[in-house]
Give the backbone structure.
Amino acid sequence: MPHLQDSWAVTNGILHGKLVAERVKAPIRQQTALLAEQGITLTLAVVRVGADPASEVYVRGKVRACAEVGILSRHHHLDATVTEAEIVALVEELNNDDSVDGILVQLPLPRGISESRIIAAVDPRKDVDGFHPLNLGQLFSGRSLLEPCTPAGCMLLLEAAGVPLSGKRAVVVGRSVIVGRPVAQMLVRADATVTMCHRFTEDLGACIAQADVVVVAAGVPGLIRGSWVKPGAAIIDVGINRLPTGKLTGDVEFEEAHARAGVITPVPGGVGPMTVAMLLWNTLVAAMLRRRLGMPRPAAQAWSV
Ligand code: GUN
C-alpha cells in the first residue's frame, strides 16, 4: 500500500481539502472578530458578469464563506450585454471606495470582453485573486503578498499532507495564468524540479509516470490515467467537471489513481474549498496592509499537529 501515513489531513491516502480549509479559516475568523472590536469590518466586492452557471455556483460559495468568517460581501451582478468600459468604471468605483478591501472579478468574462484589461484595472492592493500583472510579476520574481488562490491552496494542501518537494519531480498539467503557471512558480520556489505539460505535450503518460507530485488543472475529465501514476506520488486534482449524469469529477481517474498514489485530493472536497479559504485569507491580508495594520498571522500556523 503506497498511501501516506494517516494524519489530521489525510485518511486512507485521501487529502481532505475541506479539513485543511477549516484550519485556514479558523484564524481568519478570529482576526476579523478582533478587527470588528476596533470597529473595522472587512468587505469583499464580487463582480460577476453574465449568466455562466459554474460562476454562479462559485460566487455563491465565496459569498457564503465570507459570511462564515465575518467578512461582508457585496455582489455586483452585471448583465452579459455590459460593455468593457462599464465594467472598468465599476472596478474603478470599487478601487476608490474606502470601505472595500478586496475586489474579485469572477472569470470567465463574456466573449468580447478583455479579461486582461479588466484585471489590470483592479487596484493591486485590492487584488484578492492575485491576478494583477504587478502581483503576478512579484510572484514570478519571488513572493507576492497577494498570491493566486487556487495555486496557493494547492501548496498548502501539499504542506498539510507533509509531502516533500525539495529536489522532487513535479509535473503541472495545464498552463493557465490562473493555476498552471503560478503553481509551477510556487513549486520551483519550493525547490522542486518542475515540468509543465499542456495540450501539445507528447506522451503525457511518460511525464506523469516520472512525477513525485502532479498538479493537474486541465478541465478534461479522466485525462490523467490511474495506471500512469508513480506509486506513492502526490496527486492534486484541480479539475471540476460536470459529467452528463450531473456528477462532479476531476481531471484524474480517481479510483485507479488512488490505488497507486501516496495521497490524492478528491473532487469535490479537495482543492475547491482551499481556493475559497485562500480568497478569505487574501481579503484579510489586503485589508490589514491597506489599513497599515501589518501582516495577519499566517493561515498555516496551526499545521504541525
Ligand atoms: N474562475 C475560475 N477560477 C477563478 C478564480 O480563482 N478567481 C476568479 N476570479 N475567477 C475564477
